[in-house]
Amino acid sequence: MELRNMTLASLSVDGRGSYGIAASAVDRSDELYTYLRITDIRDDGTLNMADLKSVDDEKASQYLLKPNDIVFARTGASTGRNYFYDGTDGEFVYAGFLIKFSIDPVKVNPQFIKYYCMSDAYKGWVHSYNTGSTRGNINARTLGGMVIPVPPRQQQDGMVSILSALDAKIKNNIEINENLQVQTQALYKAWFVDFEPFGGV
């Protein structure tokens, strides 16, 4: 496989990373933008929707994520944790402890970058910047200089096609499991708390 070593910055639209808005989170409101924080991003790159907050700031709209953006946690134990935005999770304004790169779809398949940033090679690169301290810290310039081995476009597309199909199946299974858990809890409550009659007898 022929690989080209490209930096993350060189694969972005504007050649640089951007820091999020420095604003406090407020209680979730349909009148305000949803605020994406480090704590909302899981280690596997998915979102924890359980405790989302909003942001109330006049400049918030300037920090809205757009499809093919990827944000990285830049400090703390979560340094390097990342989330690729494709628009399906709703609108988000990204917080100040996140760094955004807008991936250029002409230069690379954006989802290839998503999957690279879930790889052991990427995690090893992040770990190399945690020099004995439990509190990591990576800035936009460092992230932008990260070298990514990029295969030809056809191979990128093939890899993304397979991995995204597996992702879709995993997501579907998670939703099925969550639904089953809800049903199970409802039955426990009905039978062991409310002592409703069991219809199966």
From TrEMBL:
Domain of life: Bacteria
InterPro entries: Restrct_endonuc_typeI_TRD, Restrct_endonuc_typeI_TRD_sf, Type-I_RS_S_subunit
This protein's record includes keyword Transmembrane: no
Record-linked Pfam families: Methylase_S (PF01420)
Cleaved signal peptide residues: none
Annotated organism of origin: Dorea formicigenerans
GO biological process: DNA restriction-modification system
GO molecular function, one term: endonuclease activity
Protein name (Swiss-Prot/TrEMBL): Restriction endonuclease subunit S
Gene3D superfamilies documented for this protein: DNA methylase specificity domains
PANTHER family (UniProt xref): TYPE I RESTRICTION ENZYME HINDI SPECIFICITY SUBUNIT (PTHR30408:SF13), TYPE-1 RESTRICTION ENZYME ECOKI SPECIFICITY PROTEIN (PTHR30408)
Keyword NAD: no
Keywords: DNA-binding, Endonuclease, Hydrolase, Nuclease, Restriction system
